[in-house]
User: What shape does this take?
Amino acid sequence: MRGIIFDMDGVLIDAMPFHAEAMKIAIKEETNYEIDKKIVYQLEGMPSNNLVKEIFKKYNINKELDQELIEKISERKKQLFKEIEDTHLIEGVPDLIKMLNECKCLKAIVTGAAKKEIELTIDKMIGLKNFDVVVSGEDVEAGKPNSDPFVVALQKMNIKSSECIVVENAPLGVEAANKAGIRCILTLNNTPLDISTDFNNIISKETQIFRDTKSTTDFLRKWCCNN
Assistant: This one.
């Protein structure tokens, strides 16, 4: 049996625009710094607290960053996200999951999001029962770009890295899959990231890139169901 590991935001769920906007507002409120929302896409996959640390580092924000401020920004970001989000499934996801269910392909979600957020979002929109394994940001000590999230998923799926493929939309996810020795395909959907610059040196010439999740259907069916 083969398996497919999906990232959640930007691959299954169209939530990234709201995550990026919420983080931009939260950082502005606490520091008066304006960040480019693109950085949230570049660092997608990190747990929220680590994301705040990286944003401070990359923007060289001149404000003392302690654990209290990190958690304050993270909590404010979560609050803002709940207020502004209007998330929905990305086009083609229901048909893709239905097709994979019919051929009994193993399916996992690996994301930096909190377990409660995953369970509420996925169960509401498509059903947790459609996935064999879920790995959240709380299930590993080191999230993406570390390989741990994907290694844990492989262990729970009880398959080898050669029997699995990852569907990602973010640089850190691709990097983590590479470190775990798992083949990765890229689906762009509505990302503002640029292939030639934001994914520089982490994707090879053999990496298959799809314009959206819907267009991965035939490829994933042949890869997982015809073997």
Notes: Residues 8 and 209 are 17 Å apart (CA to CA). The beta strands are 3-6, 106-110, 133-135, 164-168, 183-187, 209-210. The first strand starts at residue 3 and ends at 6.
